[in-house]
Amino acid sequence: MRNINLRYVDETYAPDGQLETFSVHYPDNFNFGYDIVDDIAMNDPDRRAMIWCNPEGEEHIFTFADMKRWSDKTANFLVDQGIKRGDYVLVVLRRHYQFWFVATALAKIGAVMVPATFMLKEHDLEYRLNGASISSIICTSVGEISQIADNVIDECPTVTSRILVNGAGGGTTKYDDEGNLIAVAGTVGAALSGEEGICAASIERKGWADFNSGVRAASEVFERRDTAAADPMLMYFSSGTSGNPKMVLHNSGYAVAHLITAKHWHNVQPDGVHFTIADTGWGKAVWGKYYGQWLMEACVLTYDFDRFNAGEILSLISKYQVTTLCCPPTMYRLMMSENFDAYDLSSLQYSTTAGEALNPDLFNFWKEHTGLTIYEGFGQTETPLTIANLKHSTPRSGSMGKPVPLYDVEIQRDDGSRCNTGETGEICIRMEPRPAGIMMEY
Length: 442
Prior knowledge:
By secondary structure, this protein is of the alpha/beta class. Helix content is 26%, strand content 20%. The protein has 13 helices and 20 strands. The protein has helices at residues 32-43, 64-80, 98-109, 122-131, 145-152, 211-217, 253-257, 259-264, 284-289, 291-295, 310-319, 329-336, 360-370; strands at 9-13, 19-24, 48-53, 59-63, 88-92, 112-115, 136-140, 161-165, 209-210, 232-237, 247-251, 273-276, 299-303, 324-326, 350-353, 374-379, 385-388, 402-403, 409-412, 426-429. It has a nine-stranded mixed sheet with strand order 4-3-13-12-14-15-16-17-18. A five-stranded parallel sheet has the order 6-5-7-8-9. Strands 1-2 form a two-stranded antiparallel sheet. A hairpin with a 5-residue loop joins β1 (9-13) and β2. α1 crosses α2 (64-80) and α11 (310-319) packs across α12. The chain is globular and about 60 Å long.
């Protein structure tokens, strides 16, 4: 571990350890793929980047050297498919390990990743493909999303390539009455992904290129290309609470700004294992499974499941010695309903939550049964973490915390004046000077 995060951050602390000031900086050509993933791969190649597993029994441990190799192969394959700098690429990959190959490869190419959930229907997908002028779709074979894409493709003229990833079960494999996996095409368990391992399961679908076969055949050598930190890197569609979802565009400063998320809220440690339970179609995935964690040189755990099972999640914490955990209160509550004390959670050192209000009964239960405080946090598709109970703070039940020192935040009335204590208003972030991590634009 080389503390490479210190290259990009200026921070000061109070005597009690609480963070007082925090800002980030990065060169004009900063690229997360080259400057973080590849840097660690070349200087600390055996450092674990991700433990990946699924209910089917497949498991892979990826080092940063592995991530460099597979992302370079992926980049070469995607370039061969016509993807270039500035292209917008829709990525629907659930929790497949290929998501991390693709995300890193697109960054290296200078293309814009547009993650999306597999739950989209025809009108949702058509709106996204046309609204963002998507050039390519990289999509899982698991579920119906590839068929949904085929149903609308004729109405989406900007799409020039479709790439299909064999999800090899993706947690959807059925079980018999005895709890045994039912064979799919004569195979069960890890063999669903092919006997040769990573990206070994090929697939054929008319009009689609086979990702796994193409990546396995691609060269491992991908030389650094010219990219700019100020260029668009990532775009999410907001949840659309008012009207259609808005397109939220981020540059590479967003990745670096997630140091506040991983270092001071999730409290990830370089030799620990962090587990954020989120599908890659949602913004919370890069909050907890990619940018900040790898800037901290930490390992993430990814479980490629289909339906949440609290008992499975609790078992994984023990099996993989998870040290830091983040999930929404609903998932914590489902864990509470299990035979909770039967699980060994002794590896856990830190717990966080976001996405909805944390009720006092859950807060108290977790403290009583694990000895750990749950630290709440808040942000949006447009931002990284903006308000939180950071490490070394003392959370108050019912409060999601204080503004993080990366941002100057006020609660304001409609006229822009500051609210009084106890008064309801809007969360507003000062934009002059413009802080890192805030969206470029809608």
